[in-house]
Amino acid sequence: MGAVGKIMENDVINLKSLSASAPLLQYNDWTHLAIEQKVRPTSVVQSNTPNQLPKQHKKQLAFHQSLAKSRFVFGGNRTGKSVCGAIETIWYATGLHPFIKIDHACDGWVVSLTRQVQRDVAQAKILQYLPSEWIVKTVMVSGSAFAPEHGVIDFILVRNVFGTISKIGFRNCEQGRERFQGVSLDYVWFDEEPPEEIYDECLLRLLDRGGVHWVTMTPLKGRSWVYERIYLRQERQSDLACFWMSWDDNPYLSDEEKHYLIANLPPEVLESRRYGRFVAADGLVFPNFDIANVIEPIMFEQPDAYYLAIDPGYRNPTAVVWAMIVGENLYVVSDYEVAGLTVAEHSQAILQRTVDLGWDLQQVRILIDSAANQKTSACEVSTAAQYRNYGLLVDANVNKNLAQGLLEMKTLFGNAEGKRSLFIFKNCVHLISELRGYYWGDGEQPQKVNDHTIDALRYIVMDWQRVNYHRNTSLNTLGQGKKDLIKLMAGKRFS
Known about the structure:
Blueprint: H1 58-65, E1 70-75, H2 81-94, E2 107-112, H3 115-129, E3 135-142, E4 152-159, E5 165-172, E6 187-191, H4 196-207, E7 212-217, H5 225-231, E8 240-245, H6 255-264, H7 267-275, E9 294-295, E10 305-311, E11 318-326, E12 329-338, H8 343-356, E13 364-368, H9 383-389, H10 402-413, E14 422-425, H11 429-436, H12 452-473, H13 477-494
Parallel strand pairs: 1-7, 1-8, 2-5, 2-6, 6-7, 9-14, 10-13, 12-14
Antiparallel strand pairs: 3-4, 4-5, 10-11, 11-12
């Protein structure tokens, strides 16, 4: 039977108060779920102050409220990510989800990396939070059903609010892909990053029922398939939601425990263990490019300047970035990256996008890679001249100093004090993906791959900084002359 277990300090949800003999009421009619919208019940032990509100793990709450079919939680150790997975599994199995309407019995899998990890982590969490009186039957792979926490579970049959039975099955990746075939499921919880072939096989299990899945993981494998397929491309998938949990997000992790973990973890894994960041981030050109730099599109009444930059492609895609200057900040509002079209076709698309943004083309400063001034054997008219012929008055006088440009961009993404001045709208999926996957190569050069929209943005940043420099140095000439005279006189006095 289910083990009650002791509620851990960093676990913020509990279902032990549920009664197996409670009447089978409809969704949100349960008295213990009589809560306001967007507020999740919590079983945290109250402090000595009666009027003090219980602590709340806001990142866990956001995860449970998400309606995305695919949810990834990137979290460090002791951040509460596994609790999310376990509680979500129990809510689906019992039909008690406070934020999602579940109207039928649900069957699902809990997938772990190994048998031992299944027993010690995911299975232990399920047993900790699932009330024993809701368990109808426990079938074991090894060990006794009278003490399932000490063995390896095959599946658990669970009572649900519909008066029927749901099934929580357990799988581990040591069993191989074949063990994940042949059934239809409503949900899958992956505890840590599975092999890609097993992940794909599980997605097929969800197809018949339109099921959902969630992954709770600490990204220790560097640039794995999750990095390439999920992390870099998350904005391109409308049914995907990603969440990051750090030690600071867990209100039940004390400062003393944080300091202990910092002192005892190697520096090279601290980023992933504490913040849930990918280990390979040490090689990123822009390691400070963060989720805080990616924002929802917003409207500005009167930007200070409009920019459009083109990185023309021949065999590679042509990339374009639209950006606005508002005060001390630069906002990238749209991007474009397409291969295989002519200059005429690119020009038409660029002009249409500019119109869609509501911009007056006469007010837009248009930049293009200086290489576009060159003529080729295939065409006597340069690429820059062709764009001008189609109505885009491009300026090829751009600063292409790579090292300086990368440094300027990195500073804008976040300086030493944490101030950010460069923001990218979430719809700029090409640029965001490139920035997340932009790594140093050999020597002092970044890897020359997937950097087209980055180059276009770099032209804008360098031009903006040049304008700022001239603006800041064009002081009142009379005042500047007075300062120069004082310096000259002081020099003569002491010579």
